[in-house]
Amino acid sequence: MSEVKAKSRGNKEVVTKKPFNMSYIRRYWQLYALLVLPVVYLIMFKYVPMWYVLIAFKKYSIVQKIWEMPWAKNHGFEYFIKAFKTPDFRTSLKNTIWLNLLDLVVGFPVPIIFALILNELRFKFFKKTVQTIAYMPHFLSWVIIYGLAIQVFAPTTGLINILVQNLGFEPIPFLNEGHHWVRTYIGLGIWQSFGWNSIIYLAAIAGISPELYEAASVDGAGRFSKMWHITLPGIKPTIIVLLIMALGNIIGSGFDRPFALQNNLVMKNAEVIATYVYKAGIKGSQFSLTTAVGLFQSVVGVIFLLLANWLARKFGERGLW
Amino acid sequence: MKKKVLSLILASAMVISLAACGSSSNDSSAATAPDTSSTETTTAADTTSTDTASTDTAADTATEEEAAPASELTDGKFAETRHITVEVYDRGNDNGSDPTNNMYTEFIKKGMMDQHNVEVEFVAVPRWTEVDDINNLLAAGDAPDICVTYSYPTVLSYAQMGGIIDLKDYVEEYKADTQNLWNWLGDTNMLWDKDPKTGSLWAIEGKRAEQERIVTFVRQDWLDTLGLKTPTTRQEFEDMLIAFRDNADTLLGKDASKMVPFSVSKDIGWRTANLLASFLDPNISDREFYINGFDDRLVTQTSTKEAVRLLNKWYNDGLIRKDFAIYDDDTAEDDMIKSGYVGAFMHNWDMPFRNGEDSYNSNLRRLVGENAKFVAIDPFENAAGKHAKFLYSSAGDRKIFFPTTNDEVLASFLYLDFISDPATIKYLQAGDEGVTHEVLDSGAIQIIAAEGDAIQNSGKNIDYTITCNGTYFGDTALADLSRAYGYADQDPELVSQADKISLTDGIAPINVNVGEISAEAGVGDTLSSKRDQIYDNAVVAPVADFDSTWDSFMDDYLSSGGQDIMDERAAKWEEYFGDADMLP
């Protein structure tokens, strides 16, 4: 990115006047040299493997080359049809969308609110301390978080339920009943990420000109009206960009969070596409079937992304591009 | 101002895209891993295409060999040094020895070099992710020449993709050179997996020297404290659990709230196996047992629902460990058992004696008291009044296969032969006298705690004796004599008692070889996971909801491939055995 910037800043006329030629490359060869490694990396690890997305349409064999493998039945769509006939895939698709939707509705506003609150704090030391503590969970792996969750939420031996039982109530099945599990899943997700995600908003807030606040104060605006009329509109583009990204991810999901948190009692609510693909594909060696599922997931994700971007532009926002 | 905002957005977009990369790489680790593994296949395919060629030539030379046998070997030795690689499990034990370089690997390397002029190299594969790791190695064309796995479906799916050498001709061709192997495994294990139609043989079954499987254990000192006698029936067992529950204050004092009368893990099918087996109809036909028998934890046998109903009642009466289903591994349970909070459990027949000073019984002796110990009991009688329980079959342990990248088939067979030599097995299991074992007056071999290079990372070094699982010492009589002394820091009498009970009224599983059941391919893991869901959910359901819970999870199991397997098994049975109820 820095190369691009340097190029565009230093030599605007060259770019616009002369089209691409060798002397240009010769003049800035250092920049191109810097670019070679990242480009090779991208091609090797991001584009060459993409070739193998074809096995979604082929009968996979471990020893044949990709073009030697025979096409799957039904014009290559055998595995897509099979996937949609599999009850497990349908369950995991439903769960993926539901969990991500909840994450979006419940989890998306939290870092914004947190950033707004932090921004209003005047005592620097306290602000920094809170901020640092809020970042911490981001650095824990989900396996560790599940270990913590068991200590705190386990049905009979968890801290909270020991307390609840000693008070004479029935234990709350945080981890072992489907609907409660969903709440725990969402809650832990928010706890793990809200501090970290608020960084971007804090940065955006820091970019708002103090003059606006001063002018508003002179006009007699209070804290809330400043928040509502200056801060929020100021970070609106950032919010939109993040929202579009989140919508693009509505059918995808991380692997480690559901995988670490799920257990046998809640599988009907906890199996998501990522974990299903892992179990059926890698452990069950059904590579073609799960590549088809993965491809389907990506295509739908892109559609959502485009749709959200189109909507954002329609409402006069900048969008991603 | 606008510029500032723009640059902020750009910067934040970059941060997000980085973050997005991070998270997407997480799920693509699942989603695209097949892709990446197959990327590597390009090279794999290259090498294998030459390899298939070389197997062809191997087959050619093989036919030549038939004309002039022993052309390759002189006195069992190759003229030129050959090189083979061998898979060995890496168990990642604390304070273990290096699995690829220790006293035992040195012994094997030296032996193979001296006897056959073959250089052996060990390739460590993590034990707990073995199937995944072998997948990757096979896909990359880097799999060891001799691979070993517990999962036959894995072998089969790679065989179907053409990744594995068909051993059907080789086993006969090299029979003369591999007498130890044939003597040890016999026709049964050598040809166990032979397809009845095509004759293909994708894997050789390692042999279990011990058929002991699962036993129930109880805290003898608790029985003594409460003045109870050893339970011999299901009802007495239940009464005993109730007594444990009701006398928690006496037994555990201030820790009374931690009392667990009967402990299980999320693998209910294993951890209550003898109870489930006792509900099975003693006169069940081979046919029915086979058709409903895909699941090795009996979940689809018709009698199992009633057995689980009893467990469900126990759970709701507070007799079974709460929370068992949310723990992924057994460490939390191990700690409970070692701390003395658990009254009874069912597990591998030698479970309380494993791991020397860190064993259950050694921990109890140290942490709870001199008398605290688990002893084996046999309380689950079936309708015929027998204490029937399943044994291991002699096969069904490790499966040994050669990937197509193996171009040293003969050398690999010689390795298996060497590993099956009684003298080799004895050394690998017993090690050196004074270092890893002592010989008692009776002649029995007593295993003692070893140090450094001599530490066995697996019990009886099964990771090296891949054709043999369990105490053998190269001599069945010696093995029987020594079995009770095979556990460091344990009371031999307790071991011997557990050994005896584990074999009482034991049922050896039947081997129905009707070739491949295509409905079973690729669904094994999914169905095992669903099996555990049936068991776990049914056990913890409220008593009133038991039937509906069992039925809905069972429906899910059947519709996810379980029913297809039963149908295909029924059809195959009819094809091979007609309407006979029993195996011929």
Features:
heterodimer, A: 321 residues, mainly alpha, MetI-like fold, 2 domains, 17 helices, globular, B: 584 residues, alpha/beta, D-Maltodextrin-Binding Protein, domain 2, four-stranded mixed sheet, three-stranded antiparallel sheet, 11% strand
Explain what this protein looks like in three dimensions.
The complex is a heterodimer of chains A (321) and B (584). Chain A is an all-alpha fold. Chain A has two domains: 46 residues, no CATH class; 237 residues, MetI-like (MetI-like fold). Chain A is 70% helix and 0% strand. Chain A contains 17 helices and no strands. By secondary structure, chain B is an alpha/beta fold. Chain B has two domains: 194 residues, D-Maltodextrin-Binding Protein, domain 2, CATH 3.40.190; 246 residues, 3-Layer(aba) Sandwich (D-Maltodextrin-Binding Protein, domain 2), CATH 3.40.190.10. Helices cover 48% and strands 11% of the residues of chain B. In chain B, the strands form seven sheets. In chain B, strands 9-10-8-11 form a four-stranded mixed β-sheet. A three-stranded antiparallel β-sheet of chain B has the order 5-13-6. A two-stranded antiparallel sheet of chain B has the order 1-2. In chain B, helix 3 crosses helix 17. Chain B starts with a helix and ends in a 7-residue tail after the last helix. The interface between A and B is large, with 70 and 68 residues.
Show the helix and strand layout.
The complex is a heterodimer of chains A (321) and B (584).
Chain A: H1 2-10, H2 12-17, H3 22-27, H4 29-47, H5 78-85, H6 87-107, H7 109-120, H8 124-135, H9 142-153, H10 159-166, H11 178-206, H12 210-218, H13 223-248, H14 256-261, H15 267-270, H16 273-283, H17 287-314
Chain B: H1 2-31, H2 33-67, E1 73-74, E2 77-78, E3 82-90, H3 103-116, E4 118-126, H4 130-140, E5 147-149, H5 152-160, H6 168-173, H7 179-190, E6 204-205, E7 207-208, E8 214-219, H8 220-226, H9 234-246, H10 248-252, E9 260-263, H11 268-271, H12 273-279, H13 286-291, H14 304-316, H15 331-339, E10 342-348, H16 360-367, E11 374-377, E12 389-390, E13 399-401, H17 409-420, H18 422-430, E14 437-439, E15 445-447, E16 468-469, H19 476-482, H20 492-503, E17 506-507, H21 524-540, H22 546-577
Parallel strand pairs in B: 3-4, 7-16, 9-10, 12-17
Antiparallel strand pairs in B: 1-2, 5-13, 6-13, 8-10, 8-11, 14-15
